[in-house]
Specification:
heterodimer; A: about 140 residues; Rossmann fold; about 45% helix; B: about 450 residues; mainly alpha
């Protein structure tokens, strides 16, 4: 039987409480699942950046360092760390498909009005991912 | 990853090779000549980059106009196809260019619609008028199209082959003395000036991640020295009809930036930032200038080091081309849409007049002509760098247009680009801090620009 893969998308742009989500992930890891940690650098309007390619690389490098910090502090072993650039929800769904994830565990943080209007990243992932999605209310 | 040419690697003795010297000197001299060397223009002194943009506009106006139509329409269709249609991008670059979120899909499609309606003259008056479509599509975007084409190949000559490190090292002691910052900050500040403001911010963040800067130093460098780069300053000056006083304009931008840099680090919110390094990093020694080295020796060493790992000629062309495609197809259509929406709001709604109402009496008191027309530029720059200049383009008073153009590039914190990057960069800056810095910069820049315009420039 192949190993279960749990994909854990995190927002590395701010320090916030991920303990409930990580406790859930630790339970899966304790049962033998391999954990893939990922983050997506949301696309940005680079209106005065001539070296857009270099700029995107710099933002992804910074995100990789932050993701590394999160992985180090996580209460489970991280099998892989992935950084993407672009629209966040589709990026998570793409990586889930590429890694053969059987489960996505994602934090739901925003409760503001924009989430009602546009939907949060978590709701978009839950609606469109091909695997199961566990949304943890932070 | 490209193969490394053995001629580009240091010799066994550690001394730079002839190829390394040439790779440092030739692009740096070419870049400096293109962007920094004063040359006589039709009416006054300008820079070769400005001459090239003017030449392209004068001789290829129709080609640029229809290229803009082709770029925006292609971008709109491909983005729609790959983001919401059945298309699957085949390469990572195609993903970066054309797979995007709903807001950007909408902006790119709107950009295409605005461009077609203006260029063909089929649109309603609120799109085809000189104050909206004429300013954005007919002036700003045609200039930006030419700027992107030239700058994507020209600016890397200054930023990638050691010139930035060389000049940065020369200025490192001045930065330490004047601004109480590590010498390395001179290089990161120059990255904004010679490359792009967001690039300067990201280089600063990288140094913070390594432990070179404290949180306060990183926030100071990122918010105070993220200067709008030379080519964009030229386009802003050209947009408001001040390209004939470009050197005076840029000198004033530099002087105002210098005054802001002296004041801002000493007052809140920057003085509130913690003077501690990033958790997990130790106090990294700033090794910009080694013990016993002169500034020229340090600059040459850093420049040669940078040139050694810089792209070779083939990579230089490839990178320039890829960046050009990215800017044309990703940025240009969205910029058309954002600028058009802003100008339509300015011309056909009272929103910006309400926003700027409190500033009209202040500008009138300061003797600014057409204060009502100029007042919105005091606030809209927080949203985007181009907006004050776009709004101020139709102002008749040359001095007031000068003020607007100065504000456009001196306020520095615009949320569409630099602000968004700062918020994501984990330097402890929140939207309140950024708004405060923007307001303080505006308060410092406005009277200085008025005085310089009245008594120095005109």
């Amino acid at each position: 039987m192949s190993k279960e893969t749990v994909l854990v998308p995190v927002d590395v742009s701010s320090d916030h409480d991920r303990s409930r989500m990580f406790d859930e992930v630790a339970e899966h890891a304790g049962r033998g699942a391999q954990v893939v940690l990922m983050t997506v650098v949301p696309e940005i309007y680079l209106a005065t950046t001539v070296d857009a390619k270099g700029m995107i690389k710099a933002m992804m490098d910074h995100a990789a360092i932050r993701l590394g910090d999160v992985a180090t502090a996580a209460p489970f072993e991280v099998a892989d760390q992935i950084v993407r650039y672009g629209p966040v929800a589709p990026g998570i769904i793409d990586v889930a498909a590429e890694t053969g994830a059987t489960l996505i565990v994602i934090n739901a943080r925003s409760r503001d009005r924009t989430a009602y209007l546009l939907g949060s990243v978590a709701s978009r992932v839950a609606n469109h991912a091909r695997c199961s999605v566990h949304v943890v209310r932070a | 990853m490209s193969d490394v040419d053995p001629r580009d690697t240091p010799s066994d003795s550690g001394d730079p090779t002839r190829a390394n010297w040439l790779k440092f000197i030739i692009p740096s001299v070419l870049g400096a000549a293109l962007f920094l060397m004063p040359v006589p223009g039709p009416e006054t002194w300008t820079i070769p980059f400005g001459v090239a943009i003017d030449w392209l506009n004068a001789n290829f106006a129709a080609l640029l106009k229809w290229t803009l139509v082709a770029v925006t329409v292609t971008s709109g269709l491909l983005t729609l196809w790959y983001s919401y249609g059945p298309g699957t991008p085949k390469t990572p670059l195609m993903v970066q260019y054309f797979r995007t979120s709903a807001v950007w899909v909408l902006l790119r499609c709107l950009g295409a619609v605005f461009t077609v309606l203006y260029t063909t003259g089929m649109g309603p008056e609120w799109i085809t008028s000189g104050a909206t479509g004429g300013t954005v599509v007919g002036s700003l975007m045609v200039n930006l199209l030419a700027l992107f084409a030239l700058a994507s190949f020209g600016l890397p000559l200054l930023s990638d082959y050691g010139f930035m490190e060389f000049v940065g090292a020369l200025l490192s002691r001045a930065f330490r003395f004047l601004f109480r910052l590590p010498g390395r900050s001179a290089i990161d500040g120059l990255a904004s000036w010679l490359g792009a403001a967001p690039l300067g911010v990201m280089l600063t963040v990288q140094q913070y991640d390594k432990g070179v800067y404290t949180t306060r130093e990183a926030a100071t460098v990122a918010t105070t020295f993220s200067i709008v780069s030379i080519p964009f300053c030229y386009v802003i000056a050209k947009l408001v009809g001040l390209s004939d006083v470009f050197f005076a304009f840029y000198g004033c931008v530099f002087a105002i930036g210098f005054v802001c840099a002296l004041i801002l680090p000493r007052i809140p919110p920057l003085s509130w930032m913690p003077s501690s390094h990033k958790p997990g990093t130790s106090n990294h020694v700033d090794d910009t200038v080694h013990e016993g080295e002169t500034l020229i020796q340090a600059g040459t060493r850093l420049g040669l080091e940078r040139a050694r790992t810089a792209p070779n000629f083939v990579e230089f062309i490839k990178n320039g081309f890829e960046n050009l495609v990215f800017m044309w197809f990703s940025l240009v259509p969205a910029t058309v849409a954002i600028a058009m929406i802003a100008l339509i709001m300015v011309e056909y709604t009272p929103v910006f007049q309400w926003l700027s109402l409190p500033f009209v009496p202040i500008l009138e008191w300061a003797g600014v002509a057409e204060a009502k027309a100029a007042a919105p530029s005091l606030v809209v720059g927080f949203a985007d760098m181009y907006l004050p200049a776009l709004i101020g383009k139709s102002i008749e008073s040359q001095e007031t247009r000068f003020l607007v153009a100065i504000l456009s590039v001196s306020q520095l914190i615009y949320m569409s680009e630099v602000g968004a990057i700062l918020l994501r960069s984990n330097l402890g800056l929140n939207i309140g801090h950024l708004a405060m810095i923007f307001v303080i910069r505006t308060i410092i820049a406005t009277p200085l620009a008025i005085i310089l315009a009245k008594y120095v420039v005109f």
